[in-house]
Design brief:
Strand order of the largest sheet: 1-2-5-3-4
Helix content: 10-25%
Low-confidence stretches: none
Mean pLDDT: 93
Shape: globular
Strand content: 25-35%
Largest sheet: 5 strands, mixed
CATH class: Alpha Beta
CATH architecture: 2-Layer Sandwich
CATH topology: 60s Ribosomal Protein L30, Chain: A
């Protein structure tokens, strides 16, 4: 079952995004499709694109977007996937260049290969 903005319901006791003052904190987003399908059997590129799409959807649900990103933290289970991630991320983020860390980890939930969390400012849209 999907929720607002194309995100599957959270799998635990958390929100996808939480606003605190002028900042939005996005919980770690995994490669889970909006219908709840876990993409752990897909290749790294597919998983990365889905996790980034989920970050964008979580930002939208909190009234902000990719252009307001301040910081992004990425966890990957194979450091050899770093170049592929950087290429996919550059296409996704475009001209936006927030602070970023890519951290190799031994394992992620459900056998996923990537998880992404982020912080963004609240975008004030013109009337």
């Amino acid at each position: 079952m999907s929720t607002l903005h194309g995100l599957a319901a959270p799998g635990g006791h958390y929100r996808h995004a939480m606003r605190a003052g002028d900042l939005v904190f996005v919980s770690g987003q995994l490669p889970i499709a909006s219908d709840g399908t876990r993409l752990s059997d897909r290749n790294f590129e597919t998983q990365a694109r889905q996790a980034l799409a989920n970050v964008a959807a979580a930002l939208a649900s909190a009234g902000t977007g990719i252009d307001a990103l301040v910081q992004v933290r990425v966890y990957i289970t194979d450091i050899n996937d770093w170049p592929a991630f950087d290429r996919i991320y550059a296409g996704w983020a475009g001209a936006v260049r927030p602070a970023r860390a890519v951290v190799p980890v031994p394992a992620l939930h459900y056998g996923f290969r990537i998880e992404i969390e982020a912080v963004a400012s609240v975008v004030l849209l013109p009337d």
